[in-house]
Amino acid sequence: IRVRFCGGYGFDPADAHRRDLARVGYGKGVPMGGDLATNAAQQAPAFLVAAQRDPEGANLDRIQIVKGWLDQAGQSQERVYDVAWSGSRQPDSSGKLPPVGSTVDLTVPTWTNSIGAAELATVWTDPDFNPAQQAFYYARVLEIPTPRWTAYDRAYFGIDLPETVPLTVQDRAYTSPIWYTPAGSGQ
Q1: Residue 42 banded pLDDT, cuts 50, 70, 90
Q2: Which residue, among 50, 42, 62, 41, has the nearest Cα to 15 in the 3D structure?
Q3: How many angstroms separate the CA atoms of 181 and 179, rounded?
Q4: How far apart are CA 176 and CA 121, in angstroms?
């Protein structure tokens, strides 16, 4: 899976559809692994994220952005946002996105790329942004379900496995984080 992830203050939705994402990302922001300082207006940063499936692998289910921060008690917190996904699914009232589905045939085992997407991209802005709070953001890309190695072993050896043994997996790719540091934090 190929992933690009940049953060900044000048991205617009059309940037997600450009073929020169690296140029746009570096020109308007910082790349994954970078430090993003607050801007004068203390506006929420936007994140440009794009992913392409492995040419020999499974289609993509969704892109998520994971935000981490320390709360006022010093406890680490984390929130996962679904920011781009395949198909016409919509999040429910709690913001949870329904599963992509599955094309896995466990008798062979195999799968088809008849669901999911070859590419996903978006520009996303943190709806819960606090300009005074240090945070980090990273992207996580999920593929559609495929057979897990246990499914191949089960079919090859003709064995029964306990129901607790998973037979499918959704492989993932992770980016390095982008660190947000508020003005005057001294860090």
Answers
A1: confident
A2: 50
A3: 6
A4: 17
